[in-house]
Design a protein that fits this description.
It is a single chain. By secondary structure, the chain is mainly alpha-helical. Helix 1 packs across helix 7 and helix 6 crosses helix 7. It is globular.
Length: 226
């Protein structure tokens, strides 16, 4: 009578299993990216908790401004779809990521967004053919102008809210208390709050940390209010 031998144990990271050394190195890189994403999201959420705690009126108005925007709604959809809350709250809190590192990581995307909203007077030249260009010229110009006006107005709204505090006598409607002072060790940042406020706190933290970067790219010729 013959018996079937048991299957061999799975190979470890340094074994001779089906995964190659390149696979392990690729997973090491992706794991590093995953950890950095978790660290960044948790840091932004903690900044958001601090802002909501120390300047509740400003936090409320910031959220009221961005909630109708597709970028905010799309971020909420991706946050839920990718289950980032599980990523953030699973395990011990990660170390706080420095503000300089977060800003440096976001500088290129912000610059690209700023460049994309610049006036494009020659957009119709991308369409070959004189007759096609003439036929599509008005719709393309209309779409370009509408998109630019919308993005410029959104950027100006953020600039107004994230700029220097208003004078005490004005009626701007938001708190003028200074930003909560925090250091890059996270000693003065409150812990993140999982649940209902988590995505909102990330958004508030992003506006708080990236506010100066966004304001630096605000349009110099905002569209006049309707």
């Amino acid at each position: 009578m013959t018996t079937t031998p048991p299957p061999p144990p799975p190979a470890g990271p340094t074994g001779t299993g089906p995964l190659t050394p390149t696979d392990h190195r690729a997973f090491a890189f992706l794991g590093h990216v995953n950890s950095s994403l978790r660290q960044c999201l948790c840091t932004l959420a903690r900044h958001g908790v601090a802002l909501r705690r120390d300047a509740p009126e400003r936090a409320r108005l910031l959220l009221d401004t961005v909630r109708p925007w597709p970028l905010y709604k799309g971020g909420q959809f991706l946050f839920d779809l990718m289950e980032w809350e599980d990523l953030m709250v699973d395990g011990d809190p990660p170390p706080v990521m420095s503000t300089e590192r977060i800003v440096a990581a976001c500088t290129l995307p912000v610059r690209l967004a700023a460049a994309a909203t610049e006036e494009a007077p020659a957009v119709t030249k991308l369409v070959p053919g004189q007759r096609t260009t003439a036929a599509l010229g008005l719709p393309l110009r209309l779409l370009t102008t509408t998109a630019r006006s919308t993005l410029l107005s959104a950027a100006q709204d953020l600039t107004d809210l994230l700029g220097p505090g208003a004078d005490p006598d004005d009626d701007a409607g938001y708190a003028t208390d200074p930003e909560p002072v925090t250091d890059d060790t996270g000693a003065e940042l409150p812990p993140l709050e999982a649940g209902f406020y988590l995505y909102e706190d990330i958004a508030l933290g992003a506006l708080s940390v990236l506010g100066p970067l966004l304001a630096d790219h605000a349009p110099t010729d905002p569209a006049p209010p309707a």
